[in-house]
## 1
Amino acid sequence: MDQRQLLALQLASWQRARTLARLIREAEHLWHVDVRDLQRLGALELDQLLHEVPPGLKPRVNRWLKGYRAATRLS
């Protein structure tokens, strides 16, 4: 694998982690809305996202979550 392909793979991994962290943060924001339906939707979305994060990306997603000041962390 040449340097260009390696950089492309690293960039793709970084973008996936950032996108997952942003989606998790947005789902968390729904928890603070007073409307029960939106809270339920936020809980379902957050649960689904937590199951979609590949194990290899969890540390990177956690770094983005920390940067976004999100409450959720992946174990």
## 2
Amino acid sequence: MRRKRPLRLLVLGLLSVAVLIYLVLNFPPTYGFMISDFRFQILPIVLVLVFLFIFSLVAFLLNNKRRGFLVAVFILGYFILKLINLTHPFFIILLLILLAMLELLFAKRK
């Protein structure tokens, strides 16, 4: 029997992409805001929103949260590698191999 696709993942994805678009269009990448005595940069918030969008979209399309999580971690890992200037293809291949091994490990346990 086929499982229904959870609609809440699609709603989460659309909501996160709407907030992401708002942040990208209205704030510069170096923008920081204050909450109490703490100063936060906007970049980690954008990365979390990108992760949520990719996770929810892939999990909705594939109907599998584990694969959605792994694809989102791969893309976010690629963005973080680009951010710290590790652009050699070897690093991307290592990240892909690591996530493929995790997929095989979790698929084996099931």
